[in-house]
Amino acid sequence: MLRVDTLQELFVAAETLSRFRANGHGRLTVMTNAGGAGVMAADAAAHEGVALADPGCALLARLDALLPANWSRANPIDIIGDAPAERYAETLGALLADASAGAVLFMHAPTAIVRSEDVARACLPLLRGHASRVMSAWLDDDAVAQARRLFEDAGVADYATPEEAVHAFAMLQTYRRNQEILMETPGADQGAVPDAAAVHATLGAALAEQREWLGEQEAKSLLRAYGIETVPTVALAPTAEAAVELPRGWDTRWR
Fold first, then answer.
1. DSSP 48-101
2. Hey, what domains does the chain have and what are their CATH numbers?
């Protein structure tokens, strides 16, 4: 169960639950070649209440060996705008090999240095068996169309912007919490004492008449016997005289 407020959110929810629902990680690592887009993703995470993963010493050491000296050394993981396709693949591989990285938001802004399609193809082998742990945001339209299609064909959930991707991750966390709540067994109301005599009388009368159904009033009397409030109903009077007498017991005070 997941509530959405707009048609756009409905499509985002459908994309997320169909492709990314198997992700069991509650933290997110943002990987990008565009520092500004990474900051926007981090801001969106703060706004949505999404926890960004904290890279551990082992992961930092691994990334230090792969990335230029001026990389961000923090989450978001900025692999620098001059990154060739191999740097994308090596960084994504390092993140997927470390469980502490959580889920990975893979972001790419087109550059003149490398074709977006080449970046996608370099990363495809890593997505086998890990697609449900990766979400992507290819930050353009025509220039990244083929790259986006390759990731989608591999089963990766794709989003138009960093903010949309982070919002989708937050929606998935809400969905998981809702599922957990639905699986909980409601506690007994310690203050309610069922009226066993009323229950037995109502059911006994129906059984004595060999009926399989209860009337509306009978069903409501059962609910009331268990402390459940019902909407009061009044039977129609069969005659004019009875109609005059019917309201005499009602509470007609103004409220």
1. HTPEEP---HHHHHHHHHHS-TTS-SSSSEE--TT--HHHHHHHHHHHHT-GGG
2. 7-183 (3.40.50.261), 193-232 (no CATH)
